[in-house]
Amino acid sequence: MSSSFPPAGTDLTTGRLLLRPWTAEEVGAVLGGGRPAHWAEDFPAEGDRVIAGYLAEHPEGLGEYGQRQIVERSSGLVVGAIGLFRPSGDGTVEFGYGVVASRRGRGYATEAARAIVAFALTAPGVHTVCAGVELPNPASVRVLEKAGLRRWGGDATVARFRATAADLARE
Fold first, then answer.
1. Of 52, 59, 144, 134, nearest to 95 (Cα)?
2. What is the pLDDT of residue 9?
3. Residue 10 to residues 54, 96, 136, 165: CA-CA distances in angstroms?
4. pLDDT averaged over the chain?
5. Region 114-134 average pLDDT
6. How far apart are CA 164 and CA 146, in angstroms?
7. Residue 67 has pLDDT above 60, yes or no
8. Crossing angle, helix 24-32 and helix 46-57, to 10 degrees?
9. What pLDDT shows up at residue 4?
10. How many Cβ atoms sit within 10 Å of the Cβ of residue 50?
11. Which carries the bigger pLDDT value, residue 125 or residue 141?
């Protein structure tokens, strides 16, 4: 993966993607039904609306270690979202992601997940990054596996994955 780590500023750049923090204006556009020209035709998806609502209630999620939009570098269009949720205080931070239907199957989710996991492990006091995925979504399970996370728990409906700096160093 070609990435700029540590990042210059708050944008994360990978080979094909730019992960940049949401702006307050973009949160407002999602919640108000706006359609900026730099969004893919099927952005925002339902998960993006949930994230925008979260950000409206938790503006600290707009910071460096918060939520980001996934921008396709070749087109400049926003094609999804990925981000970190507030650290638990025990050195673990959770992330979530989504890519719009028109851009699925291109490896964007895996590429973005790898970048956000590596970045999350640079956050002060963070040693573990985790994510949960519903078992009826095998594509998302595969994204987390390809991104270097290992399954460590769950239940009959959700699988829990995690990665540490030591795990990533072994790869």
1. 144
2. 54
3. 20, 18, 34, 20
4. 90
5. 93
6. 15
7. yes
8. 120
9. 35
10. 15
11. 141
Helix H, strand E, coil C: the string for the chain is CCCCCCCCCCCEECCCEEEEECCHHHHHHHHHCCCCCCECCCCCCHHHHHHHHHHHHCHHHHCCCCEEEEEECCCCEEEEEEEECCCCCCCEEEEEEEECHHHCCCCHHHHHHHHHHHHHCCCCCCCEEEEEEECCCHHHHHHHHHCCCEEEEECCCEEEEEEEHHHHHHC
> What gap in Å lies between CA 49 and CA 137, rounded to an integer?
20
Whether 161 and 131 have beta carbons less than 8 Å apart is answered as yes
pLDDT at 85: 87
CA distances from residue 32 to 45, 57, 83, 100 in whole angstroms, order as listed: 14, 15, 21, 19
What's the token pair of residue 89?
A: 């205080």
Using CA atoms, how far residue 13 sits from 6, 47, 72, in Å, is: 10, 22, 10
Residue 10, token pair as written in the block: 């708050």
